[in-house]
Design a protein that fits this description.
Elements (H helix, E strand, L loop, with lengths): L14 H15 L4 H11 L3 H17 L4 H4 L9 H15 L6 H10 L4 E2 L6 E4 L5 E4 L4 E6 L4 E7 L1 E5 L11 E4 L3 E5 L3 E6 L4 E7 L1 E6 L7 E4 L2 E5 L8 E2 L11 E8 H9 L5 E4 L7 E7 L3 H11 L2 E6 L4 E6 L1
Length: about 325
């Protein structure tokens, strides 16, 4: 049978070699010396697997038009800093994927690294805005602030925030709003959380009220009151359900699960650690309940495997976890 036009999956490469390839990419992206370039060439010829890994790394550079500055900058510090290590891990994880998936990184880099305020993976922080409103940022969150004489707006690009709005004098009142790709949420004196997904935005109101206006359906507005939550798209607002402080348990460093699918649990935990948590389909539907620490995700995984019939297989020095049946 002819092989013309047949799509082949990329041959698997040892994760440790991919990790080394990512390290070389970082080093060369920061401006390597001639000796370092020669050392990289020697490394790439160490074995056929090393050669394949480096060819894949060069293909990645060609697809992305160069190493994104968000990854390259940590390499300027040649010491083994946490930021550089995290960037190498993310590059190694990308190299392990099919080339067709690599373009996603360019979109992420363009959106998340040009913002006024952001947090890294696993980082949380509290910010006080110019009007004395308080914003708590969850892991991997990025937003821009637009305050002027007529408005107070936060444009949430990625991640999740909890907002406590500040009161303004009636004479100088400016509406406070949060905008996402899906729509605009105007606060009516309130405390609320907003989380953005690929195609939807989730809003939970804990105090006061918030008015939602979808970006492509301004006629479908909806006011949510304290104790209500909803997910909406650019065109439609979903079913309103009850909400309480569990929805912002992350501000206390906890992931609270109530019969959560293991696949969903792993996706949530992945938001707080560098690398990937993958779930074998055989255990994806296992239901998980409990409170798990987000500031120590290794401990959370240890609690999981000690309670449920699953094991955690480790690759890439702990940065690639696969949950499998025990």
């Amino acid at each position: 049978m002819s092989e013309v036009g047949v799509m082949r999956r990329p041959e698997a490469i040892d994760p440790l070699i991919l990790d080394e390839a990512a390290d070389w990419l970082m080093l060369l992206g920061a401006g390597a010396t001639d000796e370092e370039r020669r050392a990289c060439e020697r490394w790439s010829k160490r074995s056929p697997e090393h050669t394949r890994a480096w060819a894949r790394a060069q293909l990645l550079l060609n697809k992305l038009g160069g190493l994104p500055s968000a990854l390259a900058m940590p390499a300027l510090n040649r010491e083994p800093a946490a930021g550089r290590r995290a960037a190498i891990t993310r590059l190694a994880a990308i190299l392990a994927l099919a080339p067709a998936s690599w373009g996603i990184w360019k979109v992420i880099a363009a959106q998340d690294w040009i913002t006024d305020c952001r947090t890294a993976v696993g980082e949380q922080r509290v910010m006080h805005l110019a009007d004395n409103s308080v914003v708590t940022l969850n892991t991997a969150t990025a937003f821009n602030v637009h305050f002027n004489s007529t408005q107070r707006n936060i444009n949430l690009r990625s991640g999740e925030i909890l907002i406590q709005t500040a009161r303004e004098a009636t004479a100088n009142y400016r509406p406070f709003s949060v905008s996402t790709t899906q729509g605009l949420m105007e606060a009516l004196g309130t405390r609320f959380s907003v989380r953005v997904y690929d195609e939807t935005t989730h809003l939970a109101v804990l105090e006061g009220a918030v008015k939602i206006t979808p970006n492509q359906n301004a006629l479908q507005q909806q006011v949510l009151h304290a104790g209500e939550q909803v997910t909406f798209t650019k065109n439609a607002i979903g079913e309103i359900t009850a909400a309480d402080n569990v929805v912002v348990a992350w501000t206390e460093g906890m992931l609270v699960a109530d019969r959560m699918r293991l696949a969903d649990f792993a996706a949530e935990l992945s938001r707080y650690r560098s690398g990937i948590v993958h779930v074998d389909p055989a255990v994806a539907q296992v239901r998980v309940s409990g409170a798990f620490p987000l500031r120590d995700t290794d401990k959370a995984l240890a609690m999981l495997v000690s309670t449920y019939p699953v094991d955690a297989q480790t690759r890439l020095r702990g940065h690639w976890i696969t949950l499998v049946a025990r």
